[in-house]
Design brief:
By secondary structure, the protein is α+β, with helices and mostly antiparallel strands. It folds into two domains: 83 residues, 3-Layer(aba) Sandwich (Glutaredoxin); 116 residues, Glutathione S-transferase Yfyf (Class Pi), Chain A, domain 2 (Up-down Bundle). The protein has a four-stranded mixed β-sheet, with helices on one face.
Length: 226
């Protein structure tokens, strides 16, 4: 299998299946397509468009099959490697894990738009400014951390549904955002964040991201690339 991704410093959607596959030791070849522009006719759009009609990363290529969308990729992997238990084995826990993963996949537009993933950066002043000015973003942040607390309390941890799962891989980019912008979180949520950041797949992704040093101005609206 090949997993086609974008820049590791910025591409939160690419991070999810990469972390998942790395954590569980699923075999794949990484193919990185550098962000140059998202405009039609850019090298990025040309290369990704040859694989996926959506024109976005990630894309999983398995033989003649190309799967786009991070959640579709995760579901495909869960079916292809059932022994890995990418979702919780218990049917009720699995349903809850799918619910919180789908909420991440389709929700939290304020957090996404104001706090773009930027693993290399530390911008606490931006975090403070946005939270002071945007009540909807404050509400989304409270929802995320409460979701983590509730899942951890129900499962007993150390991850959202006990062992690391698709749900944790999907929230891993959010964890990096809270750190980048120094967003407040309750103690239990902070402890969960530390465990996610220390997990093998996330730690490996972050090491690679810090080595890129490929700063893209259009991905950094709050500062100049350096």
């Amino acid at each position: 299998m090949q997993l086609v991704i974008g820049n590791k410093n910025y591409s939160s959607w690419s991070m999810r299946p990469w972390v998942l596959m790395t954590h569980f030791g699923l075999p794949f070849e990484e193919v990185k397509v550098r962000f140059d522009s998202f405009e039609a006719g850019s090298d990025f759009k040309r290369r990704i468009g040859a694989l996926s009609p959506a024109g976005r990363v990630p894309v999983l290529v398995d033989g003649e099959l190309a799967i786009w969308d991070s959640l579709a990729i995760a579901e495909y992997l869960a079916e292809k490697f059932p022994q890995a238990a990418l979702w919780p084995r218990d049917v009720h826990q699995r349903a809850r894990a799918r619910s919180v993963t789908a909420e991440m996949h389709s929700g939290f537009p304020g957090l996404r738009s104001h706090f773009g993933m930027n693993i290399e950066a530390r911008m606490p002043e931006v975090g403070a400014r946005v939270l002071a000015a945007e009540p909807d973003v404050r509400a989304e942040l409270e929802r995320v951390t409460r979701l983590w607390e509730d899942a951890l309390a129900a499962s007993g941890g150390p991850f959202l549904f006990g062992e690391f799962s698709i749900a944790d891989a999907f929230y891993a980019p959010v964890v990096t955002r809270l750190r980048t912008y120094a967003l407040p979180a309750p103690e239990a949520a902070q402890a969960y964040m530390a465990r996610v950041l220390a997990s093998p797949g996330v730690a490996a992704w972050e090491r690679d991201a810090l080595e890129e040093k490929d700063f893209r101005a259009f991905e950094e609206p709050y500062r100049s690339a350096r």
